[in-house]
Amino acid sequence: MNFTMAIAKRSTIRSILFLFVALPVVYTFVAIQYASITVPFWDHTELIHWIAAWYDGNFSYSSLLEPHNHSRPLVYRFIMVFNAALTDWDIRSEYVYMYLVLFATFGCHVWILRQLISPAMQSIIYLVALLLISLVFFSPSGHNNHWWSMMFQLNATNLFVTYSFLMVFIRPKRLTNHVLAALSCWLAVFTLTNGLFAVITIGLVFQLSTKQMLRLNRWTLFWVGNLTALLILYLPGLALSTNPARPTLLQLAQFSLAYLGAPLGGLLLFQYRNMFDIPVSIVVNAACGAFAVTTAVLLCWQSRNKLREQNAAAMILYGFTIFAVMSAIATGWGRAAFDEYGIANGNSSRYTIFGAYIMLGQIYYLAVRIANGSWNNALSSVKLQRYIAVVLVAFVFLSFVSYGRAINVYADAHRFSKKLFEAYPWGLHPTIQDQSIHPDPKSVYRLKSDLQRLELGPYNGRQFYSQALPVGEFKKAGLLSGKRQFTLSFTAAEDGLKAVAVTLVTPNGMNTSGSIEWQVTDVAAAQPVARGILDAARIKDWETVRLKLPYLNTSKSREYLLTLTSAADDGRGAGVALYAPLINFKPALQVTEQNGTKIIENLSFGIRLDYTK
C-alpha cells in the first residue's frame, strides 16, 4: 500500500483536519473585531485631504492618482474616500472591506488547490495542504495587516496578485484568462507598487516555460506590453524612494532572507511582543528564509521540465517564488538601511503578506506531486512516512502555539485603539497624545480641524445643544442670484460653537441651480473660521442647512459674520428666509449687489447656533 492510499481512508483525521482549517479563519475574524483601530491613525490620516475636499465641494478625481512615497494607491483611496462619504468616515466600516479582500484571497487559494488536487480523490492530502495554506495565510505574524484598516491596500494588492496568478497559471493558454489577469494586475499596481512585480513575474514565468528561451512568445509579449504601458503611466513624478541611504549587498541579502523567512519564523517562534514591535534579531527569520530559498531553488530545478510543459503546479511554484524574491529585494532596497532598525525591518509584520508566497508556492507543488503519486516510491518507506507525519504535526502544533501567543498583540492593539480615541477631544490645542495620531503637529492640527468642522470620524454623532436666535415674523425671501451677497452679524452665547444653521427657500420653485458660497468670520480676529459651497440644486424649500464649523472653545460673547454669496442666474437661484428682528435683537443685515452697491436692511436670517456639550 503506497503512501497516498495509506492515509486516504482515515475519516477521523479528515474531520479533524477540516476543523483545523477553519480555526485560523475564525481566529482572524475575531481578532480583527477585537483589535481594530477605529479612529484615524498615522499615514491613514492622509485621507482627510480627499475626504474634506469631497465634503467641501472641491473634490477632484484626478487627485486620487497623486503619489504616496513610491506608489499611487488609487484603488485604496477611491474605496476609502467614497466609503467615508457614505459613513461620515466611520472607520469601523472599513473593516468590512478588509474582511472581503482577506476572505476572497483565501477563496482564491482554495480554488487553486481544488484545480490542482481533487478533494474527493485525495481528501487527506487536500486537507493537509489546505491546513498549511490556512495557517500561513492567516498567520498572526502578519498581525499589522489585521488591526489597521490602512493595510487594506496590502490585502487588496494580495487579492489582485493572487487572482492574476490563478488565472494565468491554472489556465495558461486562454486569452480571456490573460486579459482578466492583466486587469487584476493593473488594479494591483494602482493599489501598491508590488503589482508591478506581479506583471514582471508572469512575463518571466511564461518566457521560462517556452522551449526557445531567447525568443519572446506571444504571452511574454502581451505582458511586456502591459508592463510598458504601466511604467509610462505610473512612473512619471513618482518618488521611487524617500530614503537616500542605500544598503550594501550584504545588508540587502540579510534583509531579503529575513523578509522571506518571517512568515515561517513567525509560526515556529512568535517573537512580536506588542503591536508595534519589530524583533531586532534576524537570526531565526533569516535561517528560515535561507531554508525557504534553498528548498525553492531545489524544487524549481526539479520541476524545470514540468515548467516547459506549462504544468500548473510548476508555474505556480516558479511564479510565487519569483514574486516573493522580487518583493523582498525591492523592499530591502528602500528599507534595509532606512533607520535604526536597518536589516531588522525585514522582520516587520506587514511584509509577511508577500514573503509568504515562497512558502505557498512550495506547499502547492509538494501537495500535487504527492497527490498524483509521482513520489510514491520515494515515500514508500514507513519510517519516512512517520518522519513526515511528525514534522507536520510539530509544525501545526507550533503554529497554533504562535496563534495563542499572538493574542497579547491583538489585546495590545485593542488597548491602543481605546487610548487613541481619547486623543480626539473637542478642541485644537496640542496635547501630549497627539504624537499617537501622527508625528507631525501640523498634520494633526489640520486633521482635527477638518474632522471637527465636518463632524467626521471620532467627532461624528456627538451630542450638541441648540439655540435659535430670536426673530419676528417672516418678511420675504432674499434671492441668492446674480452674485448677490448677504452678510449678517451675530454673537455666540456660549463657548463651544460648532455649527450655524440657516433657513433657505426656493422662491422660484424647486428648479434651482448654481451654488451658494458661505463663510463664517471671526470679527475680532478678522479671519475666516470656516467656509464652504452648497449645491443650490439640492436645496429644498424651507430647508434648514447646517453649516459646520471647527470647534470654537472660546466663542462665548464673540461676534461673527455669516456671509452667503450666490453664483446662480437670476430666476434660478435659491433664497434665504428673512425675518423682522425683535425689538431687543436688531442685527444689521448687509446686502451687496452685483454692481457693488451695499444696502443695510433691518432684517435677520432665521438661524440656529449649535454648541457642543
Summarize the structure in short.
The chain has helices at 3-8, 11-35, 48-56, 74-87, 94-116, 123-137, 144-147, 152-170, 175-189, 194-208, 218-234, 249-268, 283-302, 304-308, 312-335, 352-355, 357-371, 382-405, 407-421, 434-437, 441-454; strands at 464-468, 474-479, 485-491, 497-505, 515-522, 527-535, 543-552, 559-566, 575-579, 589-592, 598-601, 604-605, 607-612. It is of the alpha+beta class and 613 residues long.
Structural descriptors:
613 residues; alpha+beta; Jelly Rolls; 7-stranded antiparallel β-sheet; 6-stranded antiparallel β-sheet; 50% helix; 14% strand
Shape field: elongated
**Quaternary:** single chain
Structural class: alpha+beta
Low-confidence stretches: none
- Whole-number count of domains: 3
Q: Count the DSSP helices.
A: 21
Radius of gyration: 31 Å
How many DSSP E strands? 13
Can you summarize the main beta sheet? Answer: 7 strands, antiparallel
- How much of the sequence lies in strands comes to 5-15%
The mean pLDDT is: 87
Which percent range fits the helix content? 40-55%
Distance between the terminal alpha carbons, to the nearest Å? 77 Å
Descriptive account of the structure:
The longest helix has 25 residues. The chain has 3 domains: 413 residues, no CATH class; 38 residues, no CATH class; 149 residues, Jelly Rolls (Sandwich), CATH 2.60.120.820. The protein is elongated and about 105 Å long. The chain has 613 residues and is an alpha+beta fold. The N and C termini lie far apart (77 Å). The protein is built from 21 helices and 13 strands. The strands form 2 sheets. Strands 1, 2, 4, 7, 9, 12 and 13 form a 7-stranded antiparallel beta sheet that branches.
